[in-house]
Design goal:
The protein is of the alpha/beta class. It has 20 helices and 22 strands. Strands 3-2-1-4-5-6 form a six-stranded parallel β-sheet, sandwiched between helices. Strands 14-13-12-15-16-17 form a six-stranded parallel β-sheet, sandwiched between helices. Helix 5 links the parallel strand 5 and strand 6.
Length: 627
Amino acid sequence: MVVCGDDGLAHRLAAELRGVYREQVTLVVPPSGRRVRQPVVGRARAASAALLDMVNAAVNRTGNGDPGAAERELEATEPTEDVLADAGVERATALALVYDDDETNIRAALTARRLNPRLRLVLRLYNRRLGQHIEELLDQSAALATGGGPGSGSGSTTVLSDADTAAPALAATALVGTSKIVETDGILLRAVERNPPRPGEVADPGLCTLALLSATSNDPAGADGSEDSGEHGPQLLPDSAAVEAATGRGTVALEQVSYSGPPLPAGRAGVPAFSELFSRRLRWSLAGLAACVVALAVALMVVTGDHPLHATYVTLLDLFSINEPAHNDDVGRQILQLLSGFVGLLLLPVLLAAVLEALGTFRTASALRKPPRGLGGHVVLLGLGKIGTRVLTRLREMDIPVVCVEADPEARGMATARRLRVPVVLGDVTQEGVLEAAKIHRAHSLLALTSVDTTNLEAVLYARSVRSRLRVVLRLYDDDFATAVYRTLRAAHPRALTRSRSVTHLAAPSFAGAMMGRQILGAIPVERRVLLFAAVGVAGHPQLEGKTVGEAFRAGAWRVLALEVSDGVSDGERAGGAGSEGARESRLVWELPSTYVLRGSDRVVLAATRRGLAELLGRRARQGTDA
């Protein structure tokens, strides 16, 4: 395996491949003086290096590794053809290009595909539309170079985005009743944390129980992201006996949600809604003048006995001062004409104000909005970089009110904020008054997603001083730092929800699974550990093929959740062994009976730990089988 990158994701991915999948990895990184270092990452990288050294020593002692292809680290400014050749791309099984720049990854992918057409490529691209075209291009190039077609065993290409992988979990943590979500083929799954059941109470397991939380709520064991977190840490994928025996421990249950996201507000395309066209004070003024006109028309109808339409017409003529003076009419008619003229004088400045406000609204439709008065129950999002932009889009798709805070007026997410008409506060979050401008004292939650750990921590601490029970989510890279922050905040504010998330920690399992040829659908964090959701073909896996769903379940390792079937085939026919012919659209069937026997032609969705997925799927490429 070859991993090329210039930030923390490359190191985390290399550690994932070595420590979990026991793969031999060549890591290509820029020279020490040119690396783009994540803030406060020294301990995490040192821990990863120590883990890799232990794995390498174990491989050399047991003789399972290839001494001529020992793990190594190369330093290169750019992944040129010579650098890739030196890294062994021509002999490698998979190559991950996880540079922060899309152009660098694309250029290196084209070069690597020419050097090794059968190479499995994994690219990190932020531009999703471009990623789809690049994936098709590289797959077609591999098929032509190897003389085969799709599915002939030629090199495959997978385009992933760390921002898209981490955004659902980060956005969901800020929502009420939703801590973790994962999307599978348009279906939204929600992992809900449930409090320990009371004596005699039966907890609702939902679709299944994914995990038992830490024994002590203020001691997040396993916060370092390791798979072995001790007896007090979270227990992933427990069996029914473990769930029944657990006392005083919360659970994480999986639920299926039919929610697909409401449409965005009418102002999305840059055209403001009618309620935003005029200010509230102006709307009340117009309503008051309309009421006066109606009252004058009714009074004129009573005094003169005219038809309602004619009385309204005469009132409007008097209002705009284009009617004949009522010299010869009675006193009542003259008084009403004077009142109508006075109301007309009041109408002129109101109409002028309406025109000016409408013009101003249209002129500022593409400008940044300010948080409206009286806003409350919203999410304050700090940082509009790659991660913040994706999280902002997710929140708006779910119609969650958001106020963004960004120091750089040229940040990547500014255009998205304008398009979605999201209020933005420009300023350094560490400066006094910036969070107040974002209405932090009335906010529901705070998402601190800047690229600097200390900035996120400072913002959270200040926000908690303003509102002690505010729900906060921090983006922290360093695991030791995140553990210390989590424990301290939970101890200081036991009634407030606190979560720390690492983008590389959430994204690395998906990238590693793609390098192994797995279709990773998503990841759900449990404290600082991760549960993976993968689509797996049953054929070739003795732990699954020929076994029932109940027999295929291994506690703490993996669990079958759903079966992929084709439309037009009933569930009964599928369970009875009836096959389907022809190409049909597939769908997922949940709540499978434990007695259903998995066949080689089946494809299932399962939840697994990282080590469990590695053990279940293994490295089948060495046996000549495409995993």
